[in-house]
Amino acid sequence: QARLCLASLAGTERVEASGNLSPLSLRESLNAGASVAALSGAVQSLSHGQPGRIAWQGNALLQLLQHSLCGHTSLTVLATLSPSESLAADSLATLRLATSTRGLPLAPRAGQPSAVRSALHHAAARHASHLASHVAALPADAIDEFAGDPSAAGAEAAGAAGAAG
């Protein structure tokens, strides 16, 4: 069984960046911050071999990610950072959290590809099939031209561009 979990932890920086948030936005921001703190603590505990110290039921994000953080899975963390100097501390904290997931003792089972790897494989196969259908539709002389030395074809194209200029 494959499982793909996506979680956006954006919003923790909004409290400091904006002085006047609506009560709903403030609550969302505080919840996001609490989730990030809980995730960070869980990653640290798991990295040190102490999964019993994690309050899985106390946080919705941890409940969602429990199977991804423990067990026979592949985990990919995508960290997005702000180029803003005023958010440098948030970006650094994001990088530290993402980097700390490298220490998780995950052991994907052989023969059971991760959902992400499987999805990428299928997308690549569809793309290859699409390209093959385009190549099949090309005239034979065009295929023969590209089947030769790739560096020669590049030199010919560069020469033609130079002659045109």
UniProtKB/TrEMBL annotation:
Q: Boundaries of each Kinesin motor domain copy?
A: 1-104
Q: Which residues lie in coiled coils?
A: none
InterPro entries the record matches: Kinesin_motor_dom, Kinesin_motor_dom_sf, P-loop_NTPase
A Gene Ontology molecular-function term? ATP binding
**Transmembrane stretches, by residue range?**
none
Spell out the Pfam families in the cross-references. Kinesin (PF00225)
A GO biological process this protein is involved in? Answer: microtubule-based movement
- Per the UniProt entry, the signal peptide is none
Q: Record's family?
A: Belongs to the TRAFAC class myosin-kinesin ATPase superfamily. Kinesin family.
Query: What protein name applies here?
Result: Kinesin motor domain-containing protein
